[in-house]
Specification:
190 residues; alpha+beta; 2 domains; six-stranded antiparallel sheet; 2 helices; 9 strands; 36% strand
Length: 190
Amino acid sequence: MTGALGPRIALISAMTTLIAGVVGLVLTLVLSAFVFDDFDAYGEIPIPGSGRVQLPAGEATINFHTAVPGGTDGGFPVPPLKIGIDAPDGVPDPVLTEGIGSTTSVNNDVHVRIWTLDVAQDSVYDVRTDGPVGGYINPRLAFGRDSSPQWALWGSGGLIALGLLELAVAIPWWVRAGRRARQAPGPVII
C-alpha cells in the first residue's frame, strides 16, 4: 500500500491489538482473583485446631483465611503458622512447599496463599494447625485449588507483545509516509 492509507491501517491495527491485549490481561487477572480461585474448595481447619480434609491427587493450595474489620491497605501480615498433615496408612505423605501469594480481600474477608501441597494419592488427611493468631477474627487454614486458565494469561501477553511489535513497525512507516517529497506548485499568474 502506498500513500497514507497503508501506514494508517497498520497503526490502527497495532493500537487495536495492544488495547485488546491489555484489556484481556486486566480481565484475566480480575477473574483469576475473584472467580477462578477456589481457595476453600476442599474445606477449612480452624487455627488452632484439627480436622480431616479430603484431598484429590495433584496440587492443592493452603491459604490463611480470616476476617478483618477494615480494609487491607498495604500488606497483610501473616503470622508464623504451624501445620501437621498425617496421611493414612499406605499413602505417601504430601509434599508441602512454602510460597506466599498475593492477598485477596472481598467484603472484609481476606485470604493469602501460604503453602502449596503436592498430593500423591486421593485420600482423607488428618490436619493439625497452630500459631499465634490472637488478633485475628475467626482464623483458619483453607484448602483449595487455583483453577485459573493459564492460556488466557499467555494469550493476553502474546497480544501485548504482538501489538508492541506492530507499533514498532507502524510508527516509523507512518512518519516516513508523511514526509514524502511533494511537488512544488506551478507558477501562479496574477
